[in-house]
Specification:
Layout: H1 5-17, E1 29-33, E2 44-48, E3 53-59, E4 67-73, E5 78-81, E6 94-98, E7 103-107, E8 110-111, E9 114-115, E10 119-122, E11 127-131, E12 142-146, E13 151-158, E14 166-173, E15 178-181, E16 194-198, E17 203-207, E18 210-213, E19 216-219, E20 223-227, E21 232-235, E22 243-250, E23 257-263, E24 267-273, E25 278-281, E26 294-298, E27 303-307, E28 319-322, E29 327-330, E30 341-345, E31 350-354, E32 362-365, E33 369-374, E34 380-381, E35 384-388, E36 393-397, E37 400-401, E38 406-407, E39 411-414, E40 419-422, E41 431-432, E42 435-439, E43 444-448, E44 451-452, E45 456-457, E46 461-464, E47 469-472, E48 485-489, E49 494-500, E50 504-510, E51 515-518, E52 531-535, E53 540-544, E54 553-556, E55 561-564, E56 577-581, E57 586-593, E58 600-608, E59 614-619, E60 628-631, E61 642-648, E62 656-662, E63 667-668, E64 671-672, E65 675-676, E66 686-687, E67 693-696, E68 699-700, E69 703-709, E70 720-728, E71 737-746
Antiparallel strand pairs: 1-58, 2-3, 3-4, 4-5, 6-7, 7-10, 8-9, 10-11, 12-13, 13-14, 14-15, 16-17, 17-20, 18-19, 20-21, 22-23, 23-24, 24-25, 26-27, 27-28, 28-29, 29-33, 30-31, 31-32, 32-33, 34-37, 35-36, 36-39, 37-38, 39-40, 41-44, 42-43, 43-46, 44-45, 46-47, 48-49, 49-50, 50-51, 52-53, 53-54, ...
């Protein structure tokens, strides 16, 4: 009985599944980068050197009772821990790492019952209550571990958080008991002071805080060092005047104490103390000015870490790292504004985030955080952006100029370093809220719609060729609209337009000469202003944020919409900025807002598949001319789908062809690969794949073609199968066979 080649191929691939016993790669998932931890201030934080993580407990939230959650930061993200024993919720507690016992020791704070005096220890798995006696109850004490003497030291604080109830006592914990120390030269009573142990100099350094002065509570700028030999505190170099709310950590790799604080409540500064004086460290970026933040030095990664705090007006949820050259906000981007746009810059090989504000108008994503790279262009709201791949530039058109209270007809160009304004002979006019995308197949930027000053909504189509704007007059076009979402479908070579007017759900595609209306069987139920981009890793257009009551994720394949429901989804939002990161092969999404005028987000998410389908050429073919193996129609090996492979050109004496499937391109039956068949009579022919299965390849139109149906088998995900065509061609060489080029096919999941 004649067998169907498609069925034979499916069986051949299924046969290989048995050899791939390991579980497949993870499915499609959204991952939040950096800022999983909710906004808070006055938490307890320290670095656990035994486990290489920064530990944080509790703090003051936006509203409600003090928090009682435990988090750990590994340099990529904050992970919430779930211990069996949990200390009561608190804010204003202090914590330090006891390196002898490998414990994070926490004392005091302020909770539901008032000021606390309990001592707790975190071992990486659970909390343990160590003591309920010792220092009197207090909040915001200074606390550090004296490694040289194996003592946890506490100084000062406030009995109830009020300035008139300040403490100036000195206590030490030896791992079992608290003992009060009565030193000479003690600093004045204070709360919120910074304390750190300088291992290189083997001294404790205490700095600043808030104390009582002539006008009531005042910020202090003094500094002291603890000398255990003389049982006294010794005055050190004064801090620069006007410093507020500092936090301090020891630089375990280069020595010295690092202090982060703010001057006059406007800017934050990083200082180093070496026992002689304070030196300011110059940085381009600085964490947002805040009170109630913590500081920890990550020894394993040589990073100084800070999180959150409050700038009086609002709580912050940003994680910042100092890498000895600059501060970087991990995960999140510029806070406090809506209307960001994102493109992928192929020259810089990174997504760029553009702010509607003037000053810091471009930030670059490196996979962990955003770094400002340019400034200077005026800030316009609702401008249209697209990256011109031919000329290697980002184009910005139109927008609302708040300074002039009007929309503009300006074309601005960003080359990856600086902005410049272009003055073309023609423009689409003063408009805002247009949609724009780069048409790669035709090498032009395409613009549609928007609101034209004085004329209302537009249905005009324009293109930018790097020199001038040209209006196009297609016979069919979408209805007039503002804020349509547009992107370029690379696989299908079409510009895709979706929605607009905060209510439309129609889909249009531009083929280079006309707009084509599509009629999908399914449509997103609610549409506001979604983020839209083409996911090149999975060959799908991704839309997120189609409503404000649910976190909807939909995908367009050129025929229909499909709703996706990964295990974790970003919170509901509209008008997020989104682009595909080609270097890191994932979709990047930033910010957005809950609804028009609602909560503004400054978080960063990545959408990635655990297994991207693809091919890799691994060897040349033989014959005259050499036979090449290639996919037809640019199809990839996606699970549950089919792809066609063709071997061509065929030798004139070709009688039959087989597709060889292997699990390796290194060894086969104990022999190393590639295997030279020249000694057998096939000069120049190399076998590149192990042969675990095969399937016949029918001849058609001058080539040997085979449709491979990838089974729905989870164990295939992320696995690599090797393919090479073998052709029976008696006249080609004494052995009578010719081998094609080979390729590695990685099975992926959309």
């Amino acid at each position: 009985m004649r067998r169907d080649p498609l069925r034979v191929t499916s069986r051949a691939v299924l046969l290989l599944c048995a050899a791939l016993a390991a579980p497949g790669a993870a499915q499609l998932q959204w991952v939040q980068r950096g800022d999983d931890l909710s906004a808070r201030s006055n938490y307890a934080m320290t670095y656990d050197a035994a486990r290489g993580v920064t530990v944080l407990f509790g703090g003051a939230p936006l509203s409600g009772a003090s928090l009682a959650d435990t988090w750990e930061y590994d340099g990529l993200r904050w992970i919430q821990r779930a211990p069996l024993t949990v200390p009561p919720g608190r804010q204003g507690a202090a914590m330090a790492f006891d390196s002898r016992r490998n414990l994070c020791v926490m004392f005091g704070g302020y909770g539901a019952s008032g000021a606390l005096r309990d001592t707790w220890a975190w071992n990486g798995v659970d909390w343990a209550l160590l003591a309920t006696s010792g220092p009197e109850a207090r909040t915001q004490p200074a606390l550090a571990y004296d490694q040289g003497r194996d003592r946890v030291v506490i100084f000062g604080g406030s009995r109830d958080g009020a300035s008139q109830n300040l403490l100036g006592d000195h206590w030490e914990w030896d791992g079992a008991l608290w003992t009060r120390v009565t030193p000479g030269g003690a600093p004045s009573a204070r709360l919120g002071a910074a304390l750190a142990y300088d291992l290189q100099r083997q001294v404790l350094v205490l700095a600043a805080g808030f104390g009582l002065g002539a006008g009531g509570v005042v910020p202090l700028d003094d500094c002291f060092e603890w000398d255990p030999m003389s049982n006294s505190w010794v005055g050190g170099a004064l801090l620069p005047g006007g410093l507020r709310a500092p936090a301090m950590a020891y630089d375990a790799l280069q020595g010295g104490v690092l202090l982060l604080g703010s001057f006059s409540g406007t800017t934050s500064s990083l200082l180093r103390y070496d026992g002689q004086g304070w030196t300011q460290i110059a940085t381009r970026n600085t964490p947002t000015m805040a009170l109630g933040f913590g500081l920890a030095f990550d020894i394993a990664r040589d990073r100084l870490v800070s999180f959150g705090g409050t700038n009086v007006l609002l709580l912050l949820d940003a994680t910042w790292e100092w890498d000895r050259s600059d501060w970087l906000r991990v995960g999140g981007g510029p806070p406090g504004s809506a209307g960001f746009r994102m493109v992928y810059d192929a020259n810089l090989q990174a997504p760029l985030l553009f702010s509607p504000r003037a000053g810091t108008t471009a930030s670059r994503w490196n996979g962990r955080g955003w770094t400002d790279i340019a400034s200077g262009a005026p800030g316009f709201l609702e401008s249209a952006y697209a990256y011109d791949r031919v000329r290697g530039e980002t184009i910005r058109y139109g927008g609302l100029d708040f300074a002039r209270l009007s929309s503009v007809a300006e074309t601005w160009i960003f080359d990856g370093t600086a902005w410049r304004q272009s003055f073309p002979a023609h423009t689409p006019g003063a408009l805002l809220g247009a949609g724009m995308a780069f048409d790669e197949a035709r090498g032009v930027v395409l613009l549609f719609g928007g609101m034209v000053a004085g004329l209302g909504l537009s249905d005009q189509t324009w293109q930018w060729d790097g020199v001038d704007w040209t209006q196009l007059t297609p016979s069919t076009r979408p209805a007039p609209r503002i804020k349509p979402a547009m992107t370029y479908d690379k696989r299908r070579e079409r510009v895709v337009l979706f929605g607009g007017n905060a209510q439309l759900r129609d889909v249009w595609e531009w083929d280079g000469s006309s707009w084509i209306a599509l009629t999908p069987a399914h449509q997103p139920a609610v549409v506001q202003v979604p983020a839209l981009t083409y996911d090149d890793a999975r060959e799908r257009v991704v839309a997120f944020g189609l409503g404000t009551s649910s976190d909807e994720h939909w995908e367009w394949d050129g025929i229909d919409w499909r709703q996706r429901t990964p295990a974790q989804l970003p919170t509901p939002r509209i008008e997020a900025a989104m682009a595909f990161d080609e270097a890191r092969r994932c979709v990047v999404m930033f910010g957005g807002q809950l609804s028009s005028g609602g909560r503004i987000y400054s978080d960063t998410w990545e959408l990635r598949t655990g297994a991207e389908a693809g091919f890799l050429e691994i060897g040349a073919g033989c014959g005259t001319p050499p036979v090449q193996l290639a996919s037809e129609g640019a199809a990839r090996p996606w699970i549950g789908e089919s792809f066609t492979v063709a071997a061509a050109p065929l030798p004139s004496s070709a009688l039959a062809a087989l597709m060889l499937y292997g699990l390796s391109n290194a060894r086969w039956s104990g022999l190393p690969l590639p295997l030279d068949l020249g000694a057998l009579g096939a000069a120049g022919c190399l076998l590149h794949v192990s042969i675990e299965a095969n399937a016949p390849m029918p001849f058609a139109a001058g080539s040997a073609r085979l449709v491979t149906n990838v089974p729905v088998a989870p164990e295939l995900l992320g696995r690599t199968l090797y393919q090479q065509a073998l052709l029976l061609a008696p006249s080609s060489n004494p052995l009578g066979i010719v081998l094609s080029s080979a390729r590695a096919a990685t099975i992926g999941a959309r």
